[in-house]
Amino acid sequence: MLAHFARFLPLSAAFLAMTAAACTYAPEDEQSYRDSGESGTLTVNSPEIDDAPFPELSLSGQPNSAGVSLVGLRDPNGNLHPLETNTRDELVVYDDNHNLLYSGDDLVDWTLVLEKDGVEVEGTILTYDGDVPGWTDDGRPITTYAISFPGTAADPGHKNVCPTYRDEPLNPVLTIIRGATYDRELKRVGLIDPDWVTFACADQAAYKAKALGYHQGENFAGTTAPATRDQQDATLKMITADYCGTGHSFTVQGTAIHWENSARTVTIFPGTVPGYFEAVWGKDGAICLNDPRAVDRSEVEALCPDIPFCDNIDWENPSHEWATWKPLQ
Fold this sequence. Notes:
With 329 residues, this protein is mainly beta. It contains five helices and 18 strands. The protein has helices spanning 2-6, 11-18, 205-211, 229-240, 297-303, and strands spanning 48-49, 52-53, 56-58, 68-74, 80-81, 84-85, 91-94, 100-103, 111-116, 119-132, 142-150, 158-160, 174-183, 188-201, 258-261, 276-282, 285-289, 322-326. The strands form five sheets. It has a six-stranded antiparallel sheet with strand order 5-4-9-10-11-12, with no helix packed on it. A four-stranded antiparallel sheet has the order 15-18-16-17. Strands 3-14-13 form a three-stranded antiparallel sheet. It is elongated. Residues 1-26 form the signal peptide. Keywords: Signal.
């Protein structure tokens, strides 16, 4: 009974109850955004075809921050088509009257054609999965793809465009986020623009935020609009453990946490003991911090010395997006 009741307590009361109650915050896998690569602008696990990075692409062909531009989709007969997206964050092809011609599994064996420095590079769509369960309570599905490119003589065979999954060419670990790009240094939403789409790999924060229902391509649960920029930023900060809001991540891949959002679209999993309270999150990082998930609190204080403990704050009517816990050891 206490565990069930804790779901509805204000956070100040819930904090006191957590040590005594078996609560229901389900841990997820690693939460790292990944630090930037040598370029200073792209993450080391951003999707790339033959070294042409495309974490975001303009549908109208504008070059992205790495100088890569979209050419289109090429069908198995060699015909080139404009690439567009639909409300399911799928890659689609329309005719001149905007009637749907191809989507989903129709595009398997088609190639995504990019251009960098005047040279075309291609990745082949090998797999499509339109029903990957999301991480919201209702399991709202997301769409994913496996896109590959040819290997080399020294490293033959198809290679997944998601570097972490390079040797799993059929693994659909790439998702599309329409209408937005991401600032990978500050760990915030970048552009909100219908001309741009983001390609996110499963081990990136943008993918995870989408799985949690926070992305520009779909309405936030129970509303008629996507999650706001502030909501999305708060989610990116939470996922990446950017406590200070500066873009510095205090976590590593493989670090599990428990989480719940204030909208109750992601809630407690029955029977789960959440462990040690970590933080309350807003658009600028941690509003308060007790026990960081992967470092000592002193490391965080060195960057933002004024960050308060959560036990010292009255949360009767908390204005926050997420609360997080680190699991018991």
